[in-house]
Design goal:
With 225 residues, the protein is an alpha/beta fold. It is 35% helix and 20% strand. It has eight helices and eight strands. The protein has helices at 13-19, 31-43, 76-87, 105-109, 122-135, 161-164, 174-177, 182-200, and strands at residues 23-27, 47-51, 92-96, 114-117, 139-145, 148-154, 209-214, 219-224. The radius of gyration is 16 Å and the shape is globular. Residues 5-223 form the THIF-type NAD/FAD binding fold domain.
Amino acid sequence: MKRYIRNMNMLSKEENEKLKDFKVCVVGCGGLGGYIIEMLGRLGIGHITAVDGDVFDETNLNRQVLSDVENLGKSKAMIAQRRMKLVNPLIEIVPIDNRITEENAEKILCGHHLIIDAIDNIYIRFLLQDTASKLNIPMIHGAIAGWYGQVATIFPGDKTLEKIYPQKDVKGLENEIGNPSFTPALIASIQVSEALKILLNKGEILRHKLLYIDLLEHNYMIMEL
């Protein structure tokens, strides 16, 4: 199909065909999640579940690719669906206009091949990790704050977040140092590349590792966990 011809050579025709059969759940449709959904949809991932119980406000306009002045006050998940209908109507995107909680996490996440963490709440990240492990689904963690970002791939039973965050009930650094437009785009692209490698079983992934990026000083480090 001409739509995906620029994927070719990097991926085989058979690998491109496989993408339509995968189901990926993106939890969070804001700074990270908007870019993640955009890239997954353009790749041709056949089924994307977009989870976010929040609406766009003016503070999102500096960095969230799905936000614009006409979307203020509107559901992030529903806008994600509308955007993907314009970008790639061949894929299915299911919006869930709800926050992930202990009560609904298992129901929302089950049935997917992969879960992508695009949220800014450490406690909920642990809930995602625990639920993904219970459901035997791999998860890709991503976080951003100012000039800095990180990515890790977490397989069931790894408990990687315990090695990254010593406490569950603290706020992330983004509350202190903010987020610009460029950090979410970079970290989201790395999360999507990890997703593609996991789904197609290609290359080396960031399992038992943390990729830490400091854009201010251009330090890129992979730390063994």
